[in-house]
């Protein structure tokens, strides 16, 4: 769906704010799929495209691991559920993003699973 939306004319798409890493959609697989969709649609349209990857997870370490993986894929935007993550995790993620050139979108769904 990400590819179809980006190829069809949208500039950005995003993970659902409640998505973290369910058995039917593991985060690493989702990140790889979305990165492929971004690069393929950019190649075909000549336009800049993006996708907000949700890095929300149970621990600060896991959040930062996911943000690093997104950065390594070249995806410039990550998203995090602020209230679920807590102040310390969000501060750590904000500093990581600032230091590594990532855009950070904060979502406050408060019910990530």
Describe the structure in brief.
By secondary structure, the chain is of the alpha/beta class.
Key attributes of the depicted protein:
113 residues; alpha/beta; TIM Barrel; 4 helices
Q: How are the strands of the largest sheet arranged?
A: 1-2-3-4
**Helix/strand structural class:** alpha/beta
Helical percentage = 40-55%
Instruction: Using the coordinates above, name the CATH class.
Output: Alpha Beta
Under the CATH scheme, which architecture would be assigned?
Alpha-Beta Barrel
Count of helical regions: 4
List low-pLDDT spans.
none
| Oligomer designation | single chain
- The CATH superfamily appears as Ribulose bisphosphate carboxylase, large subunit, C-terminal domain
- How many domains? The number is 1
Mean pLDDT: 92
Order of helices and strands: HEHEHEHE
User: Beta fraction of the residues?
Assistant: 15-25%
User: How many beta-strand segments?
Assistant: 4
The name CATH uses for the topology is TIM Barrel
Quick one: overall form?
globular
* Major pleated sheet: 4 strands, parallel
Protein name: Ribulose-1,5-bisphosphate carboxylase/oxygenase form I large subunit
Pfam families: RuBisCO_large (PF00016)
Organism: uncultured deep-sea autotrophic bacterium OTI-1
InterPro entries: RuBisCO, RuBisCo_large_chain_AS, RuBisCO_lsu_C, RuBisCO_lsu_C_sf
């Amino acid at each position: 769906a990400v590819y179809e939306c980006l190829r069809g004319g949208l500039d950005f798409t995003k993970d659902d704010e409640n998505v973290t890493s369910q058995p039917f959609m593991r985060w690493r697989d989702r990140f790889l799929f979305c990165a492929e969709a971004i690069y393929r649609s950019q190649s075909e349209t000549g336009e800049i495209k993006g996708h907000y990857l949700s890095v929300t997870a149970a621990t600060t370490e896991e959040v930062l691991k996911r943000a690093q993986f997104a950065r390594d894929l070249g995806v410039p935007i990550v998203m995090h559920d602020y209230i679920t993550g807590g102040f310390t995790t969000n501060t750590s993620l904000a500093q990581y993003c600032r230091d590594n050139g990532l855009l950070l979108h904060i979502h406050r769904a408060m019910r990530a699973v």
